[in-house]
Amino acid sequence: MKSISISSNISISYQDEGDKNKPAIVLIMGLGAQMTLWPDELFYGLVEQGFRVVRFDNRDAGLSTQLEQYGTPNLFKTWVSARLPMRTKVPYTLEEMAEDTLALMKALKIKKAHLVGASMGGMIAQLIAAKQKKKVLSLTSIMSSSSSLKLTHSNLKVFLQLAKIRPNKPNREAAIRYNIRLNQLIGSPAYPQDEKTLKSQAIDTVERANNPHGFHRQFAAMAASGSRQDLMAKVKAPTLVIHGESDPIIPSQEGVKTAQQIRKSKLKIVPGMGHNIPPELAPKMIKWITKHVRKSELKRAKKQAEKKQKAHWGSAPF
User: Fold this and answer.
1) Residues 43-84: pLDDT tens digits?
2) Which residue among 28, 104, 240, 246 has the highest number of C-beta atoms inside a 10 angstrom radius?
3) For the chain, what are the domain ranges?
4) What is the CATH T-level fold of the domain 2-151+216-315, as seen in this structure?
């Protein structure tokens, strides 16, 4: 893992593997999650397919800059105010987090990339694809949504259960218990993980970094961001939408809606998948993303060849 300054006050922790001359895939993780939540099986599997693959910690997650100076926003007030004319000021926005991704790409000399975003990371990737078209070769939006944040019976139940055990201060044992319970509640019913595995993963996550306040600030950015539905018509990059049929946080209907809003996008609804990426699904994910990226690269190469041919005939003497 390396770290790089992308601005005067933000440093991003990242991992960059694979041939630097190959097409770049940038993985953008979701709310409060560290880059290590991209399963190694998926990350290195994509590298083995011949891609340059980058994963990183968003600001306020993992080993990237923790913006403690902004304090801890009230999540309920932020969510309510996003629906009112007078909005509560948030520490930062999803647009600023999107700028972080672009700044990291620039620092790593990646002019254009295939973006793969999970949950909140999918929202960030959607923003970049809609507003910075020339930077995006393809978009893969996983368990995400183009709508504003919605409370459903399913996710409200999860949020209330987690609120009871969420540690407000850094506390190793409480953070480990919270992490285990979180993954039990949002995990994939068809790919359950035993408590021993969940505990081992939780220990690794908490020992790498533990900042409960960062989750609140990222949630505030997401809650205040509003809907991106009008922007989806502006996405021109080839798009793949992947969503779990059993997602308790963002219903699969949101994935369907996102796919309908983006012209010529492909949709995969995955039976038994919740709001996580179980390692057992890594081979399928690798296959889907690889096919999508390669198809996008072929389409790009064809366009470049046609452009060169037009230029050639345009300059040929008659």
Assistant:
1) 999 999 999 999 999 999 999 999 999 998 876 676 666 565
2) 28
3) 2-151+216-315
4) Rossmann fold (3.40.50)
